[in-house]
Every structure is written in structure tokens, then in C-alpha cells.
Amino acid sequence: MANGLTPIFCIGEVLEEREANKQNEVVAAQLASVFSLSAEDFSKIILAYEPVWAIGTGKTATPAQAQEIHAFIRSAVAESMARKSLKTALSSTVVAASLPMQRNCLQILM
Predict the structure, then answer these.
(1) Residue 98 has what pLDDT?
(2) N or C: which end of the chain has fewer CB within 10 A?
(3) Are 44 and 91 in contact (CB under 8 A)?
(4) 19: left (phi over 0), alpha (psi -120 to 50) or beta
């Protein structure tokens, strides 16, 4: 950040964690490391959710799964960062790394 780079902080769970319904717990633990940043520094990062189980497998999260985890991430950001800066909490950038595939892109974006 000191050199003008924008960090992309990738978060996501492996298949076993998803199947055990532990994705929120895993993502919360991953997010904890960036919640210690100042509001100013946090506002400079991009949070990118990528389910590890989807990398190179051809599998994708369903639109419902994508919406559920993004809602959880936004909620966790709001809860943790609002104490430092409500503006930062509300304007944080959360992206779906490679979730959208041609066949489900419109469903995920809706």
C-alpha cells in the first residue's frame, strides 16, 4: 500500500469445509487478519471471495451460495469495521473472484 499497490485479499473455503457447512467460520477467521488494519488501510484493499474447491475444477458456486457468503462477508465487515469507520464499512469492495461463469453470470449478478 505504501507504494500505491492495491492489495487483493483472497478468502474462501475448501470443499470439506463447505460440505461441513463451516464456510462462514473459515471466512471469518481469514477476515480477522485484515480487521486489525486501520480504517484508512482497510479502505485500500479489495476482498475477493473464491471458493478453493472451485479453482480449476469446473465447479462453481450456485447463485444462492454466492449471495449467502457475500452477505456474510458484508455483515462481518460492517460489524468489525463500523467501530472504526462507518464509511469504510459501507464502502468496502467485495468481489467474486472467479465465481461467475458464462452459464451463471447473470444469476450471480442479480
Answers:
(1) 55
(2) C
(3) no
(4) alpha
DSSP 48: E
Question: Can you give the length of the chain in residues?
Answer: 110
Q: Is 52 within 8 Å of 99 (Cβ atoms)?
A: no
CA distance 4 to 19: 39
Quote the cell numbers at residue 19.
Answer: 460440505
* Torsion, CA 60, CA 18, CA 91, CA 79, rounded to 10: 170
H or E segment to which residue 107 belongs: helix 105-109
| Residue % of the chain over a pLDDT of 90 | 45
Does residue 109 sit in helix, strand or coil?
A: helix
> Cell 444462492 identifies what position?
64
CA Rg, the chain, in Å? 14
Q: Is the dihedral of CA 27, 91, 3, 80 positive or negative?
A: negative
Q: What is the pLDDT of residue 84?
A: 79
